[in-house]
Design goal:
Number of helices: 5
Oligomer: single chain
Order of helices and strands: HEEHHHEEH
Helix content: 40-55%
Shape: flat
Strand content: 5-15%
Distance between the termini: 46 Å
Length: 121
């Protein structure tokens, strides 16, 4: 089955339920109010990848999106998930509460694998 980018992210966020149908199981996506946030985080992640990719001026936005979704889909999803889970933890690298300790990786470590375009002088 083919899913949209938002649906793929919602699956990773466990924002779905499986309903038993007569012929097969059907996935129903929940928390639809979160879709706007997810779409915004997708755009932010695409901009960050594009910045590191250093596209030539001849690349249109459509060409950039196609390249990102073809070559960096996993990274795109990871960036969105990172930003989603870091929401409310702005600028924190370590968080302790009720005996639970969390340390976030640096966001740059996710984007670090982007291969930039090189220009020949």
């Amino acid at each position: 089955m083919s899913y949209t980018l938002v649906e793929k992210i919602k699956i990773r966020l466990r924002q779905y339920k499986v309903e038993n149908g007569l012929s097969n199981n059907e996935i129903v996506f929940t928390d639809l109010d979160k879709n706007v946030l997810i779409e915004e985080l997708i755009e932010k992640a695409k901009l960050d990848i594009a910045k590191n990719r250093n596209y030539p001026d001849s690349y249109t936005e459509e060409m950039r999106n196609e390249d990102i979704e073809k070559n960096y889909l996993g990274m795109l999803i990871d960036l969105v998930l990172f930003d989603y889970y870091a929401d409310g933890m702005d600028y924190e690298t370590n968080h302790s509460e009720n005996g639970v300790n969390r340390t976030m990786i640096k966001r740059e470590s996710i984007v670090g694998d982007v291969t930039p375009f090189a220009k020949i002088l």
